[in-house]
Design goal:
The chain is α/β, with parallel strands linked by helices and 106 residues long. 42% of the residues lie in helices and 21% in strands.
């Protein structure tokens, strides 16, 4: 069975580990390296990364890493979102699903 690993910033450490999930705390500026290391582990099938960490890596790089890897990469929304950030998150999900940017009018 493949494992689920959560990548979180230091401010959110221990939360998922306390629930029995695999968790790795990532320092600022080390997200790309942490993603590559976790994706290289053969027993990891899902990586759930805090959205604040994923901002350090370009969308193109994320797609490239995920394309080479046989697992699933998910973005965990940050708890302190404003309306504009929620829209950005929705747009990124739609762009990822459809393969292009869609303008949303609410």
């Amino acid at each position: 069975m493949r494992r689920v690993v959560f990548l979180t910033p230091a401010a959110a450490r221990h939360g998922f580990a306390l629930a029995g999930m695999g968790e790795r705390t990532v320092a600022e500026g080390e997200t790309r390296q942490a993603l590559q290391e976790v994706m290289a582990e053969p027993d990891v099938g899902v990586v759930v990364a805090d959205e604040r960490l994923l901002r350090e890596v370009s969308e193109e790089s994320l797609r490239e890493m995920e394309g080479r890897w046989g697992g699933i990469l998910l973005a965990l929304p940050t708890p302190e979102k404003g309306a504009a950030e929620e829209l950005d998150y929705a747009q990124r999900l739609i762009r990822r699903a459809l393969g292009y940017h869609v303008r949303l009018k609410l």
